[in-house]
User: Fold this.
Amino acid sequence: MNSSIPGLSTAIRSYTSEKLKERSQGLEQIRDIFESRDNVSRFQETASKEGGAGWVAFFQCLFQVVVMEKKAVLKKAASAQGKSLAIHSNADW
Assistant:
């Protein structure tokens, strides 16, 4: 991605992790990095030189994580629904 921002590559890697704790840490790191106007300006400057590729990659990363989070929520919901059905099925006996 954009190596002109210290820690951004590491934060992105953490944010795209399969592990919830690492994703949470990555998100916090990304927030901390982009709270700085200097970092945003530097990122924009580099991205502009690359035809916006930095922003495209950044938003692709964000959308990838949204899909991961959605799958995790749906999996938990399906699991909870399955457990609920099992409890109700056993209660009928």
The radius of gyration is 19 Å. The helical segments are 8-15, 20-34, 37-49, 53-91.
